[in-house]
Amino acid sequence: MTMWSELRNFFWLQWKLTRAMFRGRRTGSRLRILGLILQLISFAFTFPMFLAMGIALAVVMILVSPGAAYEIATLANTLLFFIWLLLPASYSSQIIERFEMTQLFPHPIRFGSIVMGSTLMSFLTITGLWTVPIILGEIVGLAWHQLSALPLIVLGAMPAFTLLVLTGRIMEDFFDLVSGDRRLRAMTLALLSLPFMFCWIGQYAFQYAVEDINRLPGFIQEPLQETIERLDLEEEPESFHEVTAIFSQILEAVRPSRFLIWLPPGWAAAGMGLAVGDHWLRALPYLALSLGFTGLLLWVHAGITRRLMSGAALTAGTERVRSRGQFQHLPGPPDLWTLFHKDWLYLWRSPIPRRLLFSSLIVVAAMILPLRNISVKEEEPAFLRDVAPLAAGGFLITMLNMTISLGFNANYFGVIDREGLVSILHTPVDRRHILLSSNLTTLIYTGAQLLVITLGLALLTGRWALFPLGLCLGLCLQISGAPAYNLAAILAPYRAQLKHGGGRQRGNLWGMAAWALSTPPILALIVLPYLLWKPALIVTLPLAFVYSVGLYTLTLTPLARLLQRREFDTWQAVIAEE
Fold first, then answer.
1. How many CB atoms lie within 10 A of CB 330?
2. Which of 2, 45, 173, 235 is most buried (CB neighbours < 10 A)?
């Protein structure tokens, strides 16, 4: 059987696996159909946007100088590389079933066909289709400046696109390889979240730096100042041609390609773009280098595939047996600390708390530099410089509380140890201890984040009042809101989808209602006194703590009785597969 025939069988088998997603009559099958429709609608709206981006990229590269066009191509290829590296194609597309080679190993398909077919499969994902207009825009923009270089540009674009696809494919292979080990998978996700943080922080750091050219690093500041002095930008450009000429000279002066050329997408961009500036001999080695690196990625993909076929998987080693008696010596009922020990272990075994932690870091990164800008601008009114960082910090803490509450607290039983909850509900353990254990776990989880965030905000803004006030605000929001979130978790529990977003509309509505009811009293006791009359905080801060603890104490027993009455509905909901 030829390679082409096996590839046809490969895609036929993948189509059968995709159709099998929708054959069942269970709720999950209907939800997949709904998800497919939503993804198709999303693709119908987003693909024209990326097509417009490709056209805009081509137009901009045509208008600028050849050297600036090469710099733009380098930046675009590097951005696409990080998108494919951090967002593997199958994670952003559910139009076909997530491609897992382990499903194909039992079928009579040769190893080479699986390697080539899995690579071609990545071309057909949404990320792959989004990338095509961008690459075509680069080809058109570069070829416009020197049509004779078109064959070399097209030849360079082929390994550039293949490099992106293989990068995403290898990331998916690696996830399959580590999927059998929980700790290694968690470490991988944590490492992959760091570039997202750098992107967010870098965006706001760039906005902060460009407000004053003296803040830029020396290797960028010096050529940029020389270019600005040479152009004499005191007078505004009179035509669009002058604007593009100035932009070209600034881009050529900064020359980001001198740094990005050390990365694989920089090699591909150099193979495509250097010929436009008549650097034919320099382009050929980079073209050969990008082709060689593409072959290396294909070899790595084949090696991981062979390892997966042999049934091997990466692990982080055997788990240490933890002592179960480390909480038994604490004061209070022993079963409470046993439940807390169980909840604490399962807190870090569930991926949802890690996702929420990542979301919290993104929110902080998005607001931290604007807060710093407000605090250092002396021309702003004194009242604004004093109040704005604290008000924005309070808003950030409130949004952090909402993020954790909606994704975690309001559906605690559907997120943490779902099957274990069923066993606990069949025992005579005090239901108040179940609620206390879950609330204590989430309080420590949230309190640790609040401690780091409020301390960081105080350091960056120079407003040390943010630290105690923010900590008090966050803790009071968490304690006073616990009864409402417990009520939502008891009345509307559902099994969270740990592999995906983990949310569902019904649960989110109950959680949103709980957050909307529990938040205003605390804001009225802490935020309003600070804005209107600060000495009142001497009374309102202790009052906020008394209100939070008192409300929790008064509602704990009634909620425990409600949990006991709804035990059957609760455990049936959290173990039901959708």
1. 11
2. 173
Rg (CA), the chain: 28
Give a yes or no: residue 491 inside a domain: yes
Same domain, 44 and 177: yes
**88: Cβ contacts below 8 Å, ≥ 6 apart:** 127, 168, 169, 171, 172, 175
Question: What pLDDT digit, counting tens, does each position of 213-225 carry?
Answer: 565 555 565 666 6
Single-letter code of the amino acid located at 426: H
239 plus 384 within the same structural domain: no
Q: Is residue 321 part of a domain?
A: no
- Pair 358, 476 in one domain: yes
Q: What is the pLDDT of residues 505-551, one digit of tens each?
A: 444 677 777 777 888 888 888 888 877 787 888 888 889 889 888 88
- Decide if pLDDT at 62 tops 50: yes
Query: 349 CB contacts (<8 Å, ≥6 apart)?
Result: 182
Tally the domains of the chain: 2
Provide the whole-model pTM: 0.56
Residues 443 and 520 reside in one and the same domain: yes
The pLDDT tens digits for 344-353 are 777 777 767 7
507 found inside a domain: yes
Looking at the fold, whether 295 and 236 belong to one and the same domain comes out as yes
Do residues 289 and 342 share a domain?
no
The C-alpha angle 564, 570, 571, rounded to 5 degrees, equals 105
In the block, residue with structure tokens 């270019």: 227
DSSP conformation letters of 113-128: HHHHHHHHHHHTSHHH
Query: 346-364 burial, b for 16+ CB within 10 Å, e for fewer?
Result: bbeebbbbebbbbebbbbb
Distance CA 141, CA 21 (A): 42
E-only strand ranges, 223-334: none
Domain that includes residue 379, residue range: 334-575
Confidence at 316, pLDDT banded by 50, 70, 90 = very low
Say which residue the tokens 């380098």 belong to. 74
What pLDDT score was predicted for residue 275?
82
Q: How far are the Cα atoms of 75, 180, 352 from residue 501, in angstroms, in the given order?
A: 31, 20, 8
